[in-house]
Amino acid sequence: MTASETILSVKDLRVRFQTLDGTVEAVKGINIKVNAGETVAVVGESGSGKSQTMMAAMSLLSSNGEATGQVDYRGQNLLTMTKGELNKVRGRKISMIFQEPMTSLDPLYTIGNQLMEPIRRHRGLSGAAAREEALKLLKLVHIPDPERRMKSYPHEMSGGQRQRVMIAMALANDPDILIADEPTTALDVTIQAQILMLLAELQRKLGMAIVFITHDLGIVRRFADRVYVMRQGEVVEEGAAEALFVNPQHAYTKMLLAAEPTGSKAAPPANAPVLLEGRNVEVVFKIGGGFLGGEPLMLRAVDKISVRLKRNQTIGIVGESGSGKSTLGRALLRLLPSDGVIRFGDRDISEADRQAMRPLRRELQLVFQDPFGSLSPRMTVGQVITEGLLVHEPSLTGKQRDQRAVEALREVGLDPNARNRYPHEFSGGQRQRIAIARAMILKPKVVVLDEPTSALDRSVQKQIVELLRKLQADHELSYLFISHDLAVVRAMADYIIVMKQGKIVEEGPTQEIFDNPREAYTQTLMNAAIDSTRFRVSA
Amino acid sequence: MLRYVFRRLLTAIPTLFVIVTVAFFLIRVAPGGPFNQERGLSPEIRANLEAQFGLNDPLWLQYVHYLGNLLRGSFGPSYNLPDFTVTELFAKGLPISVQLGTSALVLALVVGSILGTIAALNQNKIADYSVIALATAGSTIPTFVIAPVIQLVFGLSWKLLPIGGWGDGALINKVGPVLTLALPQIAIVARLMRGSMIESLRSHHIRTARALGLSDWSVVVKHALRGAVLPIVSFTGPAAAALLTGSIIVETIFSIPGVGRYFVDAALNRDYTLVMGTVVVIALFTIVFNLIVDLLYAVVDPRVRYD
Predict the structure, then answer these.
(1) Distance from CA of A261 to the nearest CA of B (A)
(2) Total domain count for chain B?
(3) Looking at the domain assignment, is residue B6 inside a domain?
(4) In-domain check, residue A112
């Protein structure tokens, strides 16, 4: 890309929010510029202010937010424009797509109706002409059967397709700049890759500049020309993408780059005992039916799957949303009714009821994805993590329980004083540590980890991965590691099961699956996982 | 869609049956009967009356008779207004109550929605606080206070409205009762609308619409408002059933010959047939309006489809 004129320049932008706790400064005087036709990435972890910067530029801040400074688009300051002037730029010269493809379209109007709206508004085309344009756009973003899709409602489309429609709307008026705010974060890996490819293709065709707001360094490495690294509302480093990856200057950038999960896990010895085993496990959900409701729909979420988890082993279960991986994890812990045989140690627990399972629960623990929803907000951390002891070791005195809580918190790397505080006082990573402490305090043998790192920033993710590794080494734990994130699974698991639509597509030792995937689906999944060790695709 | 309507109407039959049965036996549990009020009827006359209306039969037989009559479309005679059948009473009074109720409902929906929208668009500003204050007043001041105040101000002092009476349905006679009926409903609708509109304005697709540079009119009316009316649609079902079947307070204070007063009068007088009549009418209204509302909901929200 040849050096060309600067079309967007952000100068000394500050964004403040009035909250109940006083004024919060989310963006602290940053400078960013975007040249015509180039791809700029704004990288940072949650809370870095990267999204709010662009929201401020588009005047989309929530009502308690206020922006000062300058955002010049071709010499005009967007921040001082009247609404009328601004609406001639938004959606026409600068457009934006968002992180939430599921909710970013109006659920009450057809795709066609929503696509035609910006076309009619900005280009003043008649209904028929706008319809033609809308159809062209749907073809441009490779929506199959565009004629029919014009009449579809958003809820009738998948997340990937909705994001394509969003892109079509954003490109409807041939903008100079497309701002993409984490456009693929909410999508499955294979869909992520498709959307990114589509954006690269459209940029080649249409020549607009793209501003990527992302936490994903893989995307940055593959697509960006220049990068701004943001942290706590400030730009800490900027420069050409290649230079930044080869030779990062700021300590924070170095830390981000080093935060990619690394390492691998050795398989347990061949004679290690099998702790948890499922044979032909099957989970069927009944949907609908009932009084005058007709035949219910049967959904086979887990379809005859067999798993053998040995002591000190980590089995990674990967698959896209809806593949049944979480359901399998819950079924193996007997938290869901299932068919087939499940054995724990030398006991058959397939038919065990709640009562019979209770004493086994301490040895079979579960850690959830959402560190915000899975801790009771009205209990202190100490109460949260010792609750299981009340059931499983009722003979302990209060003092002994407290001692165990101190040990458990130390073990997960938290200050023991945390036990007198409430979950909302902790960050996402700390909460996940608390959730892990809650499982570890019972000294379990098997822990099912259901996307334990997916809601966390990369740098925090790495710490949690390290913690889980250390705990495994110290206590010979067996993990069932459920994740859609192949980079993390690769670092954690010694054996991998790839699931799709309730069935096992492929399984085998981690190294083999990554080096030599046999099934086409596994290959797609591997290729799709944007691996930042691979080099950028040239535009 | 038609199949869905048919299915809903089919399920209404057992619902109605249960309501009729429970109501029939409940009113009989209440002590006393239609003819032992303090009217000084001689025992012979009372016995004759009771024999004529079949009140001496065993209860189950009376129940079977009542169900039989109901199936033939007859609610039976009123015990306390002996010149009329229950059907005749409703034929006279129901149109009046329905007229007043419908007017009040439409007024409440229109005014309440507008007020709620204005409040939401000016959240935490003067306009918003004014609407909240109005809504609080509207839902806390009882109708038996509002009605006399309207009579006093508009009827007695300013002589703009008649103080009461139906006046054979003259428009001027309806203003007072409709206003009284509508005010609390306006308050409820305004509150509901404000809340759902604020939520709607915060949603992601509104952000999309703004990012596309759409006009304020399109953002607010086309995208935000349509989503925000859904709770109002749900509210309309039960509200319509309640408003259209009359209000004893409003009808008594304004001397309107509607059916609202039958609820209480009939129950106090143990006018069994009239009580049952009102129960059936209210149940029918509730069932039908809820069905209409569910169908309307599907029209507004494409995610809800019945097939």
Answers:
(1) 32
(2) 1
(3) no
(4) no
The dihedral built from the CA positions of residue A455, A460, A462 and A467, taken in this order, carries a sign that is negative
Nearest beta carbon to residue B213 from set A88, A108, A110: A88
Q: Per-residue pLDDT for chain A (539 aa), expressed as one digit of tens each?
A: 445 789 999 999 999 998 887 888 999 999 999 999 999 999 988 888 999 999 999 999 988 899 999 999 999 999 999 999 999 999 999 999 998 888 999 999 999 999 999 999 999 898 899 999 999 999 999 999 999 999 999 998 888 899 999 999 999 999 999 999 999 887 888 888 889 999 999 999 999 999 999 988 888 888 899 999 999 999 999 999 989 988 999 998 888 888 777 788 888 888 899 999 999 999 988 776 555 556 777 888 899 999 999 999 999 999 888 888 989 999 999 998 899 999 998 889 988 888 888 888 889 999 988 777 788 888 999 999 999 999 898 899 999 999 999 999 999 989 998 888 888 888 888 889 999 999 999 999 999 999 888 878 878 888 889 999 999 999 999 999 999 888 889 889 999 999 998 999 999 999 899 888 899 988 888 877 655 444 333 33
| Domain-embedded: residue B158 | yes
Task: Choose the closest CB to B213 out of A105, A118, A155.
Answer: A118
**What is the domain range of residue A419?**
311-337+349-528
Last residue of a domain, one of A239, A258, A277: A258
**B303 vs A contacts (CB less than 8 Å):** 107, 153, 155
Q: Provide the domain limits for residue B236.
A: 93-300
Residues A249 and A382 in one domain: no
- Which CATH number does the domain housing residue B270 bear? 1.10.3720.10
**Residue B211 sits at the chain A interface (C-beta within 8 Å):** yes
Is B202 inside a domain boundary?
A: yes
One-character DSSP codes across A365-399: EEE-S-TTTSS-TTS-HHHHHHHHHHHH-TT--HH
Cβ–Cβ under 8 Å, residues B234 and A117: no
Contact B184, B243 (CB under 8 A): no
Q: Is A241 contained in some domain? A: yes
Cβ neighbours, 10 Å, residue B157: 9
CA pair distance B11, B185, nearest whole angstrom: 30
Q: Which residues sit opposite A94 in a β-bridge?
A: A90, A177
In a domain, A444, yes or no: yes
For the entire predicted model, the pTM comes to 0.82
Do A321 and A459 belong to one domain?
yes
Distance CA A48, CA A254 (A): 16
What is the predicted ipTM?
Answer: 0.81
